[in-house]
Amino acid sequence: MSDLLINPRDLRFQLYELLDVEAMTQRQRFAEHSRETFDAALETAGQIAAEQFAPHNRKGDENEPVFRDGAAETIAETKTAWRAFAEAGFLAAHHDAEAGGMQLPTTIQQACQGHFYAANVASAAYPMLTIAAGNLLKAHGSAEQQAQWLPRLLDGRSAGTMALTEPHAGSSLGDLRTKAVPQADGSYRIVGNKVYISGGEQDITDNIVHMVIARIEGEPAGVKGISLFIVPKYRPDANGEPGEHNDVTLAGLLHKMGYRGTTSTVLSFGDNGDCHGYLVGEPNKGLTYMFHMMNEARIGVGVGAAMLAYTGYLHSLDFARQRPQGRPVTAKGSGSQVPIIQHPDVRRMLLAQKAYAEGALALCLYASTLFDDSTTAPVADDRAEAQELLDLLTPVVKSWTAEYGCKANDLAIQVLGGSGYTRDYPVEQFYRDNRLNPIHEGTNGIQALDLLGRKMAQNNGAGFEALLERVRRSIAEARETELAAPLAAELERALATVERTAGSLMTAMGEQGPERVLANAWIYLDLMGRFVVGWLWLRQATVAARALGQAAADTAFYRGKLQAAQYYLRWELPQIEHHSRLLTGLDDTCLAMAEDWF
């Protein structure tokens, strides 16, 4: 089973040959680590994922949580998996040793987490949100709040959630109505409703710590008046243990297409006027604080989408190698049937999946190295540049992996044919689970507006310029190898297109205003995603070419990397040329479509 979650050879390649994560052990924070300790963490994650998460993936899908007597009930295996995850230390893996953590690089932590997403993304969502809530408190909570809430989040006694969306306001957070009323003791009474809150109610942990955005009475309307609050399910007693119920009520469970093992809840705060909230940081800075959790969750969405694509690819590859059907076109109807992997169109679909899945994983792990660099790189300028790049790429990481993870899962179904469309094989569930990822943590369209409307111009385009410089260096390095040099030419053409397109759009934004430019933001996001993943495929091709030049023993693996890079750079990347024509021409086809023409 573990071999169908992720290819361990590819993971080692990406971490150690492509990203050189082992070099992080030279930094003070990670000095106690080595490749051996990294591998031990990855091996443990793979084992727990295979033994405790994967076996109930289908059961959790078929037996989604139920609403009974005002509470949510999950299958017993979900709690068992949670305990195994927590007891292995993965909730605290990247935290300080003094707090019970392992001080793992975020890159290794995300690689570990990827095993759980591939095994059972619904059960893995509970720890993902809890880790993000803990990180938010670590970054912005007071010392007292950290002492009160962090230990229980890090050892698994409590889970965390992110409570943003309201029934009348999805991504438009400035329209929220949840209010916070100040109290004499410094706490607040929270009143309002939240919807689509993943993990908002469950029977897995002793307590749930909701990170809730609300507006303090009398504060400004819109996003400027949003504050952030800790709102537990149970208020702590004198010993810090869960005590009185905090007037957080489960109003209902939502029934989803996929991701069914994760509760999706409708929550009501303060129906009885007794919901206590505790302000995090300063008033009216809640959205700034919450973006810490939201951006982390967006990287988590990317990793989850990549891993669902990856496991779907491996399942369809395994099927294609074993399923006999048809004969080569040269056989003219004679001879034995051959495995379907011998048919060129099946190989096309497998190659596309490989390019999407391994490219998506490379994108997510690269973004994780940027986070590590932004916090632990020895040189201040390097930390700053890494942060600029991470800000630029976060919308791409969330959206490109979600978009093409779904496409990969769709192709996996097609490889299996009729079998893929049945519930007797897991690939249909992978697709349903992955279909959530283009929606949550900000729809792909919202991410596109963020990328083109904000991140491209942030700090005078510092992140974009840093990206282009890194791409240029990779092209120069690829030219030094015989096998990767032709692919470098493909990316160089794309680089010119990307530079030209960005310049044209930034000029148009200044001269004509944002409406017509941002109307086509989605195809700009797709253009950037294709370009960045193309760059990462060229980097993989260069590493593979060097290994083959040194007569590496693992010839088939490296040849596969080169072929997947060739596919991506020749088949997928050139589509940005059409995107560029639409963008630079400020095509108004969609913008000019009148409502009554539909």
Kindly describe this structure.
With 598 residues, this protein is an alpha+beta fold. 55% of the residues lie in helices and 11% in strands. It is built from 17 helices and 12 strands. It has helices at residues 8-18, 35-53, 57-62, 76-87, 106-140, 143-155, 286-322, 344-376, 380-416, 427-434, 444-455, 462-479, 485-512, 514-518, 521-549, 555-572, 576-584; strands at residues 66-68, 71-73, 158-163, 179-182, 188-198, 207-216, 226-232, 234-236, 242-245, 248-253, 264-269, 276-279. Strands 4-5-12-7-6 form a 5-stranded mixed beta barrel. The protein has a two-stranded antiparallel ribbon with strand order 1-2. The chain is globular and about 80 Å long. The two termini are 48 Å apart. The relative contact order is 0.09. The mean pLDDT is 96.
